[in-house]
Amino acid sequence: MKETDACGFIYMPASSVVEILNAEPINTTSSLQEAGKNPPMAQAIVRGHLPVPNVQELAQAWNRSSEPVPEWYLRAEEEATADEVVAGGVIPVVDLSKLLDPQATEKELAKLGTACKQGFFQLINHGVPDEVLLDAKRDITEFFKLPLETKEVYKQLPDGLQGYGSAFVFSETQKLDWSNMLYLLLRPIELRDMRFWPAQPPSFRNSVDRYSAETAKVVSCLLRFLAVDMGVEQNRLLDIFGGQPQNMKVTYYPPCREAGKVMGVSSHTDASALTLLLHVNDVQGLQFRSDDGRWLNVEPIDRAFVVSVGDILEILSNGRYKSVEHRVVVHPSKQRISAAMFHQVDRSTTIGPLPELVEGGGVSRYRSVSHADFLKHFFATKFDGRKSHLDHYKI
Ligand SMILES: O=C(O)CCC(=O)C(=O)O
Predict the structure, then answer these.
(1) How far is the CA of 326 from the centre of ligand 1 (A)?
(2) Is the C-beta atom of 123 inside 6 A of ligand 1?
């Protein structure tokens, strides 16, 4: 069973989130906060809807202690990495400069198509200037070095996920991820909420703005080639991604001296259409599930993007491309930082297989759903603790 992450809904007005929450009320007082149950070394922050510890702070003190892993983070043995067969994963490498070169485009396009059927690939020669990548990496790294009280100026509000905090906590009994994040809505630009954009380091906003523009260009390019690979009109996907909604999740994974007993990000698929991931430092940790069920490490190539197909693209492509389950493990002694750019479809879109792909005797493999209902179902799945999201739409 797959679990789907929160990439798809950040640009919903907070009131829509609250509406959905109200439909299925949850207890907003965390059991973690009950007297005597608060982790002694942790400072609690409110994230999403349930207050949980700040992992970066907790890890700093806990790694120096001899205490066992706090139970909120302790994974069941079968989930822990030590008990899984993990092999070195070779994911396809696609060269954007070759896609753009008329002499090489056909061969590279075939590689792109095959890569999307597998769900994960690395994109090299993507044209984002080194300076833009380096500035974004530097400022993201500097942000996480700031004292907690400075970072918390940008903390999440109780009814939303934008800002500094942790990934979505949907139940008091779920195991927590060993990570903190900064989640920002980047595009459409008019929907940016600057309250959550760090003003420290001083160049942060400018660096992220330029990084957002450059990655949006890369995604436009990919969408054109994907449309060609799918055999539909070249601008077909670009039109669906009108305005190119883009969210950024920057994740900080502190080291954990018992790394095999915790999880940086739980197993999930992306609810978005296309994700571009940048390794902000060179610590590996991302793993994806291969067809035979094993977890495979992604070995990042310097300056490459790790691109993954999300649930929406799997549906639009009528299953031609695959949204693959992935997770993040943490390092025993090194911090890890990543920046994921989630690309969405326009809010007015009906999500379903492109009619061109099922016309002429083809079979629709997914039910169509409005974007709003897609998001509603995503929330409902989270809140009642069920894991499947994409499976709900499969015919
Ligand atoms: O940090 C990573 O490598 C991936 C993060 C991720 O999959 C997520 O946040 O959805």
Answers:
(1) 8
(2) no
E strand map for the chain: 44-47, 50-53, 86-89, 93-95, 120-124, 163-165, 180-187, 246-253, 265-268, 274-279, 286-289, 295-298, 305-309, 326-328, 336-343, 350-351, 369-370
Query: At the fourth CATH level, which superfamily is domain 17-393?
Result: B-lactam Antibiotic, Isopenicillin N Synthase; Chain (2.60.120.330)
For residue 328, report the distance from its CA to the centre of ligand 1, in Å: 6
Residue with tokens 């993007």: 305
Q: Model pTM?
A: 0.86
For the segment 170-186, what is each residue's pLDDT rounded down to a tens digit?
A: 667 778 899 999 999 99
In this structure, the residue with its CA closest to atom 1 of ligand 1 is 338
| Mean pLDDT score, 103-107 | 94
327 Cα: distance to centroid of ligand 1 (angstroms): 7
Relative to the CA of 167, which ligand 1 atom is closest?
A: 9
